[in-house]
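ingest -> validate -> predict -> emit
validate: passed (alphabet ok, no gaps, 458 aa)
predict: started
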Amino acid sequence: MGASTGATAEEVLAAIDAVLPPTAGPVRLATLDARAAEPGLQEAAARRGWPLTGHPAAALAAVPVPTPSDRVAAAVGTASVAEAAALLDGGELLVGKTALGRVTVAIAVRDDTGDVDLRHHGDAEVAPGLVDLAVNVRADAPPAWLREVLHRAVDASAGYPDPRPARAAVAAAHGRDEAEVLLTAGAAETFTLLARALRPRRAVVVHPSFTEPEAALRAAGHPVERLLLHPPYDRLTGVPDDADLVVLGNPTNPTSALHPYATLAALARPGRVLVVDEAFADTVPGETESLAHRTDLPGLLVVRSLTKTWGLAGLRVGYALGPADLVAALAAQQPHWPVSTPALAALAACTTPAARAEADEVARRLAVHRSALLAALPDGVQVVGEPASAFVLLCVPGGAWVRERLRERGWAVRRGDTFPGLDGDHLRVAVRDPGTSRAFASVLAEILAEVQTPEETR
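emit:
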C-alpha cells in the first residue's frame, strides 16, 4: 500500500477491505520504509494482527510493475509503491493499484508452500557411473590421519558415546564456553531441533538457500515467510524488523555468495533468533566472514559442519554455537546419545589447531581450483555473482535439457529449480580439480553447441 501522511487507521483498513477478497489467506502489509512509521499504518496492522514491512525506495524501484508513475518517482524515489511492495517477494498481481482517498492499495497473491521440492538435495542427482559435480562434499576419502582416528573410534564403539572431549575441543576452537556448544548428527539436525524447540511468531528464511531449514519449520507446523534475494543474490536487504526467527546461509548454498560479516551481525537483536548456516564457512580462506566466535550478539546461533571439507557426509557430524539457554533448549529435543562415537572422534580431531590449519590450506587450494573452473566455462554460460565457496551457480540457456544431456554424457550437476527463487536454467556445479573441471567444461560446450543447432538438423 501507499498512503499520504496523516492517513488514519480507519482509512487504511477501509481501503484494504474494499479490494481484499473475502477468501484471502494470511495477509501481510508492505509499503515504503518512510511510510511504515506512519501511526495510521501501524495501528491498522496492529488491529488486524498483520505484519507490516517497509521497503527502501531502491528495492521498490527495481520491481517491474504494470502502472509506474513519474509523479510518484519524483516524489519518493520509486515509480511504484503499492504494486512494487506487493510484488517484491514474488507472486502474481491480483489487484492493480487502486486509489481510495488518501490510501492506494495493490494485492499480490502467492502460494509458497508447495511450489518446489524442499527435500530435494544434490545426492539425488548422483548415480553409479556419473562424475559427481552435484554434491558439495570433498570428492576423495578423508585424509589418512583422519581415517586412522575413525578406525580407532570404531574399535572403541562398544561403549556409549562420551561427548565431553568433543564438546571441549569445539569450544576451545571457537573461544566459546562449553555450554554454548551443541553437538549434532550433521548440521541439518539443528534445523529440526529449532523447529521443535521454538514457537516463532514470524519466521523468515532468506532464499535462495539451503532448503532444509524451511522444510523442517513447515514440517513442524510453523508458517514461513520467504525473503527472496535478487540476482546476483549478494545484497542482503529487506529482512522485516519484527521477524523473531531469521535463517540464512553464509556462504550461501547454492549461490556461493559470501555476505559481509558486519551485514549479518547487524541483523542480531533482542527477541530474535538469528540462525546463520555456516556449513561452508571453512571453504573460505581464513573464514573471514564467520560469526562463530561472536558471543556478544543476542540470539545468534551459528550452524557448522565437518562433512564438506573432510568428506564425512555419511558420518553425520556437525555442531551449533549459540547462547547457553538456546543451546539447552535445542539439546532438550535430542534423544540420548545423539552423536556417535566415530562422529565425536572426528569432531575432536578436526577442531585441533593443526586440523584447522590444514582445512585453511584446503580452502586456499579450493580457490585456485574454482578459478580454473570459471576460466574453463564456455561462452553462453553465465556465472551468477562472485562465487566464494566449493560450488558455483550457473545460468545456462535450456538448463533442464542441458542437465539431462550432461547425465547422458556421464556428468551429474545439481538442478536449481528446487531452490526458491531459481528456475530450471540454474545449475549448481561443485568445484573439483582443474582436470575434472576442464573435462566438464568441454562436454558442456559440446552440449551447448547442440542447443544452438536447429532442431531439424539434430
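Residues 353-376 form the longest helix (24 residues).
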